[in-house]
Description:
Elements: H1 5-8, E1 14-15, H2 26-53, H3 55-65, H4 67-72, H5 77-103, E2 105-106, H6 113-126, H7 131-147, H8 151-155, H9 159-180
Antiparallel strand pairs: 1-2
Helix pairs in contact: 2-3, 2-5, 3-5, 6-7, 6-9, 7-9
Amino acid sequence: ALNESWLTGGAQGIGGIRPLFAGLAAPWSDVAFLALAALCLALIYGGYARIISSRFGRALKVMREEPSLAVCFGYDPVSLKTRASVAAALPAALAGALLTYYISYVGPDVMVSSETFALWTIVMVGGLGSNLGVLLGALLVQSVYSFAPFLKDWLGVSSDLAGSARLGLVGLMLLACLLWRPRGLLPERLETRS
């Protein structure tokens, strides 16, 4: 992205991107964007639910738990991992596109290492292998991210300390979850057959 500045804007990125619903009046453009984001979330959630219950989803679970067993069943590990990466990349690309229109900017400094930390924390706090758990984790971690800046007003601390408290609180949430709920708050339900 940095080298192809003619396409991506280089280190400065591309700003001033017109919002998706710019033609609507002020509150309705936000409502329309929220509805679009909710629709995308519902479609992705439903799509992943179908994938998990499909033969491909079961093959991924076997690959995750016992890779050698998956090979014995005739699954190609490289093919499974490639298809899983594509299944994960499509919603990530859609989320990135929505974020770009939401903040009207795209550049290399949008996704920093703290965002990666937050994403892994969302999955680990919510529950590994659980779609509903990931939604819960996203709600909890984003709540901490959103409310941490208000610490400066509530507790009378500096803005720098409130900004640092954001990552610290998320780290404490992750640590507490790892100590007391290592599989997450809503872990994957294991099917038992009798």
